[in-house]
Specification:
By secondary structure, this protein is an alpha+beta fold. The protein contains 13 helices and twelve strands. It is an enzyme of class 2 (transferase).
């Protein structure tokens, strides 16, 4: 039923129907453009032919002695020209060479001694064609034998009849030629443009109905024209959308799995949190110090479990921003990475007293994801980690109203095939077996702060730069706080 519904409008408003109408219109315009000047040219040639015949008759009549030409011969000569009278003017003398019984009233005058414009010739030709053929034309042209001019009076009817015969012949031939040319142009355009566009449209409609079906992706024809380029670009766009839909499907499946284990995991973490709180009551300073860190880590883990599904729902909680000391946050990240038993070295260069206007938990997650990726990259070397070579470095500084954080490592760097989709879930993983969720989550959290995270090219290993701008605070409110302080 859907195909039948789309086929009916195509026959009325499709490209083929529009192309046929336009081709027919242009063919008619071409025929008119050829016919109109051709008719004017025929009109002038016909009059010139009659004037040429009048020249011959004028020579005969002028050579004969006066009043010596029989009336019957004079009429025959007039009939051969199709004229009512012929007048020859030489000098001051205007001589009537031949005339019918009653000279007719002249309705139109044409002087062939002048060079008329195409517009006037067309107007005169159509004036005769639609005059009804009852008028009389006074035709004036150059006279033979040194005369000043010869004047001929003829009926419009023979000219009009000749113009109709010429029009029928001209229009018939023009229509045949134009129809053949128009048909060839129509077939050529239909084959080169309309059919490829129709196929492209059908593929787009089919892909729109089932974008997860790889068979619905356009197969480029390989042509180098605009349609071929459009097919290639559409195929690339459809493949990218198809891959993204598959990734979204995987993400949805992951979210469903996390939803099933989220409840039990939160209960386990809650039990571990209670146990750690009991350890905090120990009198042993070492146990007390470790238990406080354990409590903080478990609190973050419980909070992460509470918001695990937010990524699958395509949203993170809004940042709860406040001034955070960078040095302390970086130390927490180092301890969470547990580098004491690792061969990977840690170094940091943080400006003294550097603070950032950010959500501490979300910024901790960003730095932890980047640090964990760097640690895994260094520990996954074929020859193993080397303390003299492998290092994770964190740099922090302020540039005006922007805080810049850089996390770099001396590992093998980011593969070229991962750079195009580095911050896309399931596509930007830099190691075998990875999901790429760490960088995707980091990018989302940084963008929620109005900042930016990107990979710095041309460095040893991988260097990620995070820029976090300060929030715009009302100056009047800040001034009021200072006055109260």
């Amino acid at each position: 039923m859907a195909q039948d519904q789309t086929a009916a409008p195509r026959s009325k408003r499709g490209l083929s129907a529009k192309l046929l109408r336009l081709t027919s219109l242009f063919v008619l315009l071409a025929v008119v453009a050829v016919y109109v000047p051709a008719l004017a040219s025929f009109y002038e040639r016909w009059l010139a032919d009659r004037l040429g015949r009048a020249h011959s008759v004028a020579l005969v009549l002028d050579a004969a002695p006066q009043n010596m030409v029989p009336e019957t011969l004079s009429r025959r000569l007039l009939d051969s020209v199709g004229a009512k009278l012929i007048v020859l003017k030489t000098g001051e003398e205007r001589r009537l060479l031949a005339s019918s019984d009653t000279p007719p009233m002249v309705s139109r005058e044409v002087d062939l001694r002048e060079d008329p414009s195409m517009v006037s010739s067309i107007g005169n030709a159509f004036g005769v064609l639609f005059s009804g053929g009852k008028g009389v034309i006074r035709l004036v042209g150059d006279a033979p034998m040194g005369g000043e001019f010869v004047e001929v009076v003829i009926d419009e009817a023979p000219l009009r009849a000749a113009m109709f015969r010429f029009s029928r012949t001209m229009l018939g031939m023009s229509l045949v030629v134009a129809a053949i040319g128009g048909l060839l142009v129509y077939l050529l355009l239909d084959r080169m443009i309309v059919r490829p566009v129709r196929n492209l449209t059908d593929k787009m409609v089919a892909f729109g109905r089932d974008p997860e079906n790889a068979d619905a992706i356009v197969v480029p024809s390989g042509s180098d024209d605009e349609i071929g380029i459009a097919e290639t670009e559409l195929a690339a766009m459809q493949r990218e959308l198809h891959d993204q839909l598959q990734s979204k499907g995987h993400l949805a499946a992951l979210g469903l799995a996390v939803a099933k284990i989220n409840h039990d995991l939160r209960n386990l973490l809650a039990s571990a949190q209670l146990a750690s709180e009991r350890l905090a009551a120990s009198q042993d300073p070492f146990v007390s110090r470790l238990s406080s860190k354990l409590v903080t880590t478990l609190e973050r883990a419980v909070a992460y479990c509470a918001t695990t599904l937010s990524y699958g729902a395509a949203k993170e909680p809004a940042p709860q921003r406040r001034q955070v000391e960078i040095a302390g946050l970086v130390r927490d990240v180092r301890e969470a990475l547990d580098l004491d038993e690792s061969a990977v070295r840690w170094s940091e260069a943080i400006e003294r007293g550097l603070t950032v206007d950010a959500d501490p938990d979300q910024l901790f997650r960003v730095l932890l994801n980047l640090g964990r990726n760097a640690k895994q990259a260094l520990e996954s070397r074929i020859d193993g980690p080397d303390p003299e070579r492998d290092q994770i470095r964190v740099v922090g500084r302020r540039e005006g109203a922007i805080v810049v954080l850089e996390i770099s490592d001396t590992g093998p760097g980011v593969p070229d095939e991962a750079k195009d989709h580095l911050f896309a879930a399931f596509q930007g993983s830099t190691r075998s077996g990875g999901t790429g969720l760490g960088l995707a989550i980091a990018s989302e959290l940084v963008r929620a702060h109005g900042g930016e995270i990107r990979l710095i090219e041309g460095t040893i290993g991988a260097t990620f730069r995070i820029t976090l701008p300060d929030r715009v605070i009302d100056l009047r409110a800040r001034a009021a706080e200072r006055s109260r302080a």
